[in-house]
Amino acid sequence: PSFVAVEENKRTKNKVYFGVMAGISSSSYHPSGEASFFKNSKYDGSVSPIWGVWVDIPTGRNRIRFSIPIEVHYKGVKTNGKVDLYNGILTRFAFDYVQVNVMARYTYPKGFIRPYANIGMGNAFMVKIKQNEKSTNGGVNWSEAIDGPRKHEQSIVAGIGATISRLGIECRYVGSTGFSPYGSSGIGVR
User: Fold this and answer.
1) I want to staple 179 with a disulfide (CB 3.0 to 4.6 A). Which of 21, 65, 88, 149 is the partner?
2) What pLDDT sits at residue 71?
């Protein structure tokens, strides 16, 4: 007779975590290209709140080291600029977005404080145009600056952070395509 050892694989359910998020976004604007609004120009940085919801989906049974965080948050982009071309055009832009980030995360699983790192992609969808204006006479009269700003913004997202019990804190870098609809010119947001 022969004996065969049979090992039963027990399936363990990994918890899916979810929560709310809030923070501060500090943005800088980097113009490039030949369009008159972006050539030889300088744009002010801005600080704005962000808030949203997230879900973190573990991808393996290895003590939740690897996961896929998905976030949906609301953000604002606002800047004023001065273009030295054509005797100084003044510009002001303000847009609101809903952004969806999908990332890959590695979390160190041991200890009360668990550090993590993540990287992924973001897609922001413009929901409101607050300002899209230019002035060629020193701010006396304002008119539309960009005919149809880009409604979809793509970005690269990378961050490091830590969780302590049920609270997390993260420092993040985001580089996006910005709101310019022009193929050869733009204003990247960092």
Assistant:
1) 149
2) 96
Predicted local confidence at residue 129, as pLDDT: 95
pLDDT score of 36: 53
Residue of 132, 138, 45, 39 lying closest to 84 (CA atoms): 39
Q: What is the per-residue pLDDT across 18-34, written as a single tens digit (0 to 9) for each?
A: 999 999 999 887 777 66
Count, residues in the chain: 190
| pLDDT value of residue 30 | 76
* Nearest alpha carbon to residue 126 among 154, 145, 98: 98
Distance (Å, whole) CA 10 – CA 182: 55
Tell whether the model's pLDDT for residue 3 goes beyond 80.
Answer: no
**CB distance 32 to 180 below 8 Å:** no
Long-range contacts of 81-87 (CB under 8 A, 24+ apart): 81/29, 81/31, 81/37, 81/41, 81/42, 81/43, 81/44, 82/41, 82/42, 83/36, 83/37, 83/38, 83/39, 83/40, 83/41, 84/40, 84/41, 85/36, 85/39, 85/40, 85/41, 86/36, 86/136, 87/136
Residue 165: which region, alpha, beta or left (left: phi > 0; alpha: psi -120 to 50)? left
> CA torsion 39→41→45→51, rounded to 10°?
-30
Q: What is the pTM of this model?
A: 0.83
